[in-house]
Amino acid sequence: MRGMWVIYRKELADHFSSNRFVILFALITMVSLITTFMVGTSLKKELEGIARPSLVFMMLFTSTGDLFSLAQFIAFFGPLIGLVLGFDAINRERINGTLSKLAAQPIYRDAIINGKFMAGVVTIKIMLLSIVLLISGLGLFTLGVTPGPEEVGRVLIYLVISIFYISFWLGVAILFSIFFRNIATSALAAIALWIFFSFFVTFGASLAANALVPIDQNQGADAERLFAHAQVQKAVSLLSPMKLYSDATSTILDPMRKTTRSLILIGPMERVSMDRFNRPLPLGQSILVVFPYIVFLILITLICFAISYLAFMRQEIRSG
Asked: Do residues 157 and 107 touch, judged by C-beta distance below 8 A?
């Protein structure tokens, strides 16, 4: 335990003193503040002279404004935080010859990988918490509204989901830094996987849906076939952690969203009582809707780190 604490403090100091961390944190903070300011200013103009709707504070995270929403920005560019923090976590030590020196000390081998991962996760927590607090303060200044207990709870849950989401990419980066001895190769592999999950899984989902449940655009299709087509497309797209994260956070941040589905078949009874779909969903119910998504994000993060752990424990430690 003492050895892991030493590695943890060393890695944490390295992260906060590195130029790439300062540049990345400054870039993400700048874009987040600019986006929030634009959204807050636009919302303030739209709400002038009318009654403030409930849970208006959540619109700071979900409104797109002229560019994109904060939630969309973190979903797409958030993985870069984890990749930058971990793509050279092991192979840098191996190239510099310090990995064998660390292993020669009275430090257990698992303390090295555990300390590095823990330092990365804590760095991610500090970065995200700082950004959320800055955005909340800017939102208070621009909108002039105070978030209620439910809004604070939704933001905290969003923060936890975001930490696990970016920690998954940290585990991916550490895994590639173990498998590849060259730093550039591990960085390219991590970025390639990020691009694959960001773009190509979505294309693959559309192709799979068109192949399994084809729809004639000229003649159209019945509601059940359209629903089956959407279900196939959604099932394939959920192979991407980005899709899991986007669906989970959008449901948590938007209380008016009742489901993660993009297409819903409404029966006769639902048509009669449509007013119940116009009410905000309580926080507990929103959590239940996306609970499988949250569990799966946590699971793939732990699995990714477990694979990195086993690979590092079985790998020979030597420099060069």
From this structure: no
CA distance 315 to 320: 14
pTM above 0.70, yes or no: yes
Question: For residue 274, what pLDDT is reported?
Answer: 47
Give the start-to-end residue ranges of the domains of the chain: 2-314
Q: Amino acid letter at 181?
A: R
Give the Cα separation of 138 and 31 in Å (integer). 13
What does the alpha-carbon distance between residue 169 and residue 167 come to, in Å, rounded to a whole number? Answer: 5
Render pLDDT for 50-92 as a digit per residue (tens, 0 to 9): 655 566 777 778 877 666 778 888 888 889 999 999 888 888 8
Least Cα distance to 34 among 58, 75, 62, 66 occurs for 66
Kindly write down the DSSP assignment for every residue of 64-90, as one continuous string: -TTS--HHHHHHHHHHHHHHHHHTTTT
**Residue 90 amino acid letter:** I
